[in-house]
Amino acid sequence: SMFDELYADPARLEQFMNAMSGISAGNFHALAEKLDLSRYQTVCDVGGATGQLSIILAQRHPHLRCTSFDLPAVEPIARRSITAAGVADRVDTASGDFFVDPLPEADVIVMGMILHDWNLDRKLHLIRAAYRALPPGGALVAVENIIDDDRRENVFGLMMSLNMLIEFGDAFDFSGDDYRRWCEQVGFRSVEVVPLAGPASAAIAFTGRR
């Protein structure tokens, strides 16, 4: 698979992750501005790669403590970025396999361009894992090219879904209604979709247990 090839070569992996950071930067800055994090203390970015989102959130919201969670091979890459950004006092790293290990507990869990890499069973696995790791009043935030419910407007999201199918065989992008149904199936109480930069949005699922 593409992931097996990338993770087999640490230098190529870091190059790929730096390229993805360039693509994600606009969305992550928009998320840091638009998401009301005032009532939360901790954030975990699942599949955090270079730690970019955790860095941006820590810089924008000084009260937050953030954790960037990814596979063990990625942790040194994230540590270097976090240290270089000068936020190592409030941004930690953690490593594990999100299909095997429990996710780190946090008030908010973010998955940036993660869910679209997988088939439905694995999407549901990750959503369930996030639900288990969240406290009462917590939130799961999926940053994706969310397709409009009528599947007629977000052409980029539709084309990205086709691209994921070609690359991985059974992966796909999804609509806000899809995400809402999946999240409610595992126990989340409500979902809202917040536009970010370009065709991307943040789909936010709330536990509703206060």
Describe it for me?
- There is one protein chain.
- With 210 residues, this protein is an alpha/beta fold.
- The protein is built from seven helices and seven strands.
- It has helices at residues 2-7, 10-34, 52-60, 75-85, 120-133, 155-168, 176-186, and strands spanning 42-46, 65-70, 91-95, 108-112, 139-144, 190-195, 201-206.
- Strands 3-2-1-4-5-7-6 form a seven-stranded mixed β-sheet, with helices on both faces.
- Helix 2 (10-34) runs parallel beside helix 3.
- The longest helix is centred in the first third of the chain and has 25 residues, at 10-34.
- The protein is globular and about 45 Å long.
- The termini are far apart.
- The mean pLDDT is 93.
What brief labels describe this structure?
210 residues; alpha/beta; 7-stranded mixed beta sheet; 7 helices; 7 strands; 19% strand; globular
How would you briefly describe this protein structure?
This protein has 210 residues and is α/β, with parallel strands linked by helices.
- Approximate strand percentage: 15-25%
Mean of residue pLDDT values: 93
Q: Helical segment tally?
A: 7
How large, in whole angstroms, is the Cα Rg?
Answer: 16 Å
Give the topology string: H per helix, E per strand.
HHEHEHEEHEHHEE
Portion of residues in helices?
Answer: 40-55%
How many extended strands?
7
Query: What gross morphology would you assign?
Result: globular
User: Strand sequence of the main sheet, in spatial order?
Assistant: 3-2-1-4-5-7-6
Largest sheet: 7 strands, mixed
Structural class: alpha/beta
Measured between the Cα atoms of the first and last residue, the distance is: 42 Å
Q: Segments where pLDDT lies below 50 for 5+ residues? A: none
